[in-house]
Amino acid sequence: MVGQWGKEDEEEVVIRCYDDRRDRIEMDCLEKSCEIGHDHQTLLFTDTLGDPICRIRNTPLFTMLVAEVGKRLVGSIQGSVKPVKFHDKSVKVGYVLGLRVVPPYRRRGIGSILVRKMEEWFVVNNAELAYMATQKDNEASLCLFVGRHGYVVFRNPTILVNPVNRGWGLKLSSDIGIRKLKVKEAASWYRRHVASTTEFFPDDIDKILRNKLSMGTWVAYYNNDVDNIESWAMVSVWDSSKIFKLRIGKAPFSYLLLTKVCNFLGRLLPFLRLKALPDLFTPFGFYFLYGVHMEGPLCGKLVTALCDHVHNMAASSDDGDACKVVVVEVDGDDDDDDDSLLRKCVPHWKMLSCDDDTWCIKPLKCEEKMAGNLSEFSNMHLGSRSSLFVDPRDV
């Protein structure tokens, strides 16, 4: 596949599939040259543990395309295709992630060529929709996907991050029971209670729950309500630390100061039981909570108990660097729905969390149907609200 970015440029850009034996070392250099951050101060670095396609390897169908100029890799993009439930029918959707272009070659149309070629791969593999995630203040990304390629914004989730205190278990309420579900049981609960009320619920939920990275599914309830359960909550846990690590390269001075103060006082006055901030400047892993669902008038406290239970799992882990934070992503659009309640019930540190995630979507259909579909997606959440199910394989 060959593309060009302008008549004034004599070099051609060649788009081809990633070759692990040929490209792995150069891809590592490309990743390191592309810094990621949710503000102008914080830079987040990803260590793929030697596997550039680790973030898509667990999906049913995936590929990575690279852009080559001469014999040098200057860009890349990753994509996956999976079956989901959408408007009560099964469809295939393509997820775009990991778009990278090295700084010297930006603003030459290479990113646009990569997106177009990935969409062509989606269509070949029968995907009806394409979607991606970025930050709402990432003007370059929004200009590319929304302005040039016809995507529309359809969700603005909030990422909630809670630090893990090694060796410090949180006390759980004695009136709450927590039980681990078997895979078949968990899949049945998700299909019965979640599938009909969520966007993009994965048709292959059984495979997700059986994946080696899925640590299990837990349900919480009130012990005095066990015979006639009115309020309950459930959550599944995905161990992202097994496939990649993160590291903060730079951070605001306030974060550095708070880290030192909390850790110092925690050692000096242990009886205060101050929650220390973990060292996020060295590579760390995280547990991702997915499929968070709750029902009943008193379900908020149950969600908090489940999050505390996962914290205790991470705090008692034998691998000290395996999990330093627990992450969950919930919808951030409205203040009057269950996702708003989730934001209040999920323990998190505002300093570590961010509310600037933006999801964009595009139908991959013929042009005459495009306008109507875009209007449908733009107004998708103005009527009856559906909950947000974040596939852990997309993280």
UniProtKB/TrEMBL annotation:
CDD domains: NAT_SF. It comes from the Eukaryota. GO terms for molecular function: acyltransferase activity, transferring groups other than amino-acyl groups. It holds the Pfam family Acetyltransf_1. Residues 13-165 form the N-acetyltransferase domain. This is N-acetyltransferase domain-containing protein. It comes from Arabis alpina (Alpine rock-cress).
